[in-house]
Amino acid sequence: MARKITRMPAREGCQYPWEEWLDGDVWELTAGEDFLTSVHAFRGNAYMAAYRRSMKASIQVRDGKVFLQARPR
User: Fold this and answer.
1) What is the CA angle 43-45-49, rounded to 5?
2) 14-45 burial, b if ≥16 CB within 10 A, otherwise e?
3) Can you tell me the distance from the alpha carbon of 15 to that of 9, in angstroms, rounded to the nearest whole number?
4) Where are the domains of the chain?
5) Most CB within 10 Å of its CB: which of 7, 10, 11, 15?
């Protein structure tokens, strides 16, 4: 039976290792291996992950690969 609760349950961990990928180095990520969403959706997720950490993401997309580098804002 449905029931009302006072708040949303906590998330069970992060889907991607953002702390590793947003370390300032340049990362080459491959669609279908490193992430399972579309390249477009992953780009948005990466920008938001960087923003939440007070960083700015630089992203380039070529041939199904995403090149990602983060730096402080």
Assistant:
1) 120
2) eebebeebbeeeeeebebeebbeeeeeebbeb
3) 16
4) 18-72
5) 15
